[in-house]
Amino acid sequence: MTTPRPTSPVGSSSPAAPDPAAVDPAAPAGDARAACTLTRAELPAQVEAHLAAGHRLALVAGHDDGATGFRVVYAFADPATDRRTELTVAVPRDDAWIPSLSTVSFAAGRFERAIRDGFGIEPRDHVRPRRLTRHAHWPAGWYPMRRDAATDPVFGPDESGFAFVPVEGQGVYEIPVGPVHAGMIEPGHFRFSVVGETIVRMKARLWFVHRGLEKHLQGRTPEQALPLTERISGDTAVGHALTFAMAVEDALGLEVGEQDRLVRALLLELERLHCHVADLGAMANDVGLGILQTHTLRLREQLLRSNALVTGHRLLRGGIGIGSARLRGLPDVELVGSVAAEVAELVRIAQGTAVLVDRFTGTAVLHRQQAAEMGVLGYVARASGLDVDARRDHAFVDLGASFRVCTAETGDAMARFTVRADEVAVSAAVIADLVDRLGGHLGTGGPVAEDATHAADEGDADRDDDASATPVAHGLALVEAWRGTACHRVELDAAGRLTRAAIVDPSFFTWPALPVALADTIVPDFPLANKSFNQSYAGNDL
Fold it and tell me: Nearest to residue 20, comparing CAs of 50, 61, 57?
């Protein structure tokens, strides 16, 4: 068991109600961490100041502190300096509300709705106060993230449906799609308002498979929780495991050696590579070029087999440890290079095919300002001209001259295709460079478990479900997973167990941009548009 370093209690290093200027977002970075406890009245001005200074709202997390009430933590990250700031607001249990920030931050408004659904903390004066994660059949007054929440509530039938805003006018009709879909796809309901074939409005309804993952992590040691974080979103095993591990290390003050950080960066790029290769083929398939997808699936299979030799798992599970990294072997650089070369040739063929160019160009355009206002992340943001990438903005290792941030300007399906293709080439170059720099080093975490797929079941027997222990240490991490920046924030008690783990997959930020991009897109192009975004259902619905 890992024991936290001695620290003052969470939030106790700041006075209960300091002057709002106590945390100046425009001040020189100096200390990479800043924290402040505010009153509810002081919160809006501080948040607006951080947003105006260019700081990104990375996370808003609710906490149930038992008899002392609730806390809400607002975490900001400055991409220019990598400075992290946390603003904490105490919320009385018998007066559970926070001032809504939905008029100044779209992302804040969504976090507030999720906190209301999980903790029952009301965002006062929210511009869009309807439920976010809780479907209509969830019991009224049952808030699953509270300590006293019943573990086996009675769910009723979902009789009220969902209040979609109707679009009225001559020739307008609706097309409902999902939540059950053909093929291997997770559930999501999409309601289209259409004139002819043109989409006037689309509303997505997600959260059909809520797993209660954040609550499930409470009471576990970081080592017990780590395998579960690999399963937050199946195709982002490295991204989420690494973000969680780094948050724990931040809380414990653990230093990770340069070689192990290089191993971690290598695993991230291997994950990015096989996911982008698959997406490029899937997008081509959605406009009828199935032969291109056949070839990308062949290439992805080669990469997955190589992954199995690297960590023992095709999806690279088992390579990340708390304070360490470990490999069975280094990847085959020749194979990676040959895959990248074949992908480049397939992309050249695709972009020389009139049908693909016609269908991709100008389809599902997400303009730069829209992407910025909504806080979109990852390749979707970069395809809309936003130069954002945590590998540079929140770097944990220097990736060297082989790394560059790939962007495009048009914000359409073609731009998202092109950015992925460019990132394949960059990832292949970074992988080759990292392998050379590692010089045979396989990490310090010891051998990878023979069967990482069963590791999530370990430690259940000695899990402590009593989440009443006082947190004494907290940490936050930002990592550029393959879809975009993932953020985890953890709190640990004196025994080294998790009292809270807040998780933000980049899909939480980017999903809402899909309906915006679909305006004036034709219905037959929805599968292409959706695939060009390719956001995670599981990562969004924890």
Answer: 50
